[in-house]
Amino acid sequence: MEEHFILRVPPSVAERLDKLLSEDPSAVEDALDLAFRDARSGMFTIGQDKFPASLVDMPCVLESYKTYDDNVLIKTADIGQMILVQEEGEAAPEGPEYKHGLTPAMRDARRRRFRREPDLNPDLVQQVENDLQSIMAGGTARDVDVEVVEQDADDEDEEPAPHTTAASKKSKAAAAAGTAAVADEAGGDGDGDGDDDFDDLMDEDDEDD
User: Fold this and answer.
1) For 48, which of 15, 20, 70, 81 is 20 to 30 Å away at the CA?
2) Bridge-based pairing state of the strands 32-36 and 41-46
3) What GO MF terms are annotated (predicted)?
4) How many CB atoms within 10 Å of residue 153?
């Protein structure tokens, strides 16, 4: 991957740069120079004119591509910084983080498109980090509040009492009769125990009714 940056210049300087790039390098009279006084500010020189320049961080990462046949694009770099050249007397950007993007849609992108950082208490954040490191090291958390919540007896769901209907009684009687008949067909001893059991079950159902 190559290292790229964006050079943004005033319109008057842009016209001179386009002319320099389109002409033969040997016939160029205006010399270009970029010198930095520190890590963020410097001076851009074209010919005899000098302009203040600032190195700023873009609000988003840009991708650059190159092509040799106007068909296949090859990614060459990720761009995150821009050298901003301004006219003499213009106010320098506030801080190293530039708030605008390259296109009109990205104007004031840091405020309109990015989520604001939460307003957290630094002491609370440090305490949480210390507790987390202590737990990971095998310790226990400090200043832990434990709250026990008990469910009221009135809120508990009561199980419905079993209810026997006449239809269920008849189903039991029919099941007993079927069992007795199967026992007789399977070669019972003929003592009529199956019929007696059926009669006893019917008598119990009559008493329940």
Assistant:
1) 81
2) antiparallel
3) RNA polymerase II general transcription initiation factor activity
4) 6
Instruction: Compute the chain's Rg from CA coordinates.
Output: 44
Alpha carbon distance 50, 13 (integer Å): 10
Which residues face 51 on adjacent strands? 44
Of 5-19, 33-47, 59-73, 194-208, the range with the lowest mean pLDDT is: 194-208
Helices and strands (H and E) in the chain: how many: 5, 5
Residue labelled with tokens 């329940």: 208
Token pair, residue 13, equals 């300087």
Residue 107's alpha-carbon distances to 69, 98, 159, in angstroms, are 33, 10, 65
- DSSP classification of residue 106: G
Q: CA-CA-CA-CA torsion for 117, 118, 122, 124, nearest 10 degrees?
A: -150
- In the chain, the N- to C-terminal Cα span, in Å, equals 93
Q: Other C-beta atoms within 10 Å of 25: how many?
A: 7
Q: What are phi and psi of 84, to 5 degrees?
A: -100, 115
Amino acid at 171: S
- 10 Å Cβ neighbour count for 74? 9
- Nearest Cα to 57, choosing from 34, 79, 90? 79
Q: What is the pLDDT of residues 112-171, one digit of tens each?
A: 887 777 788 888 889 889 888 888 888 776 677 778 888 876 665 555 555 555 555 555
The pairs formed by 130-136 with CB atoms below 8 angstroms and a separation of 24 or more are none
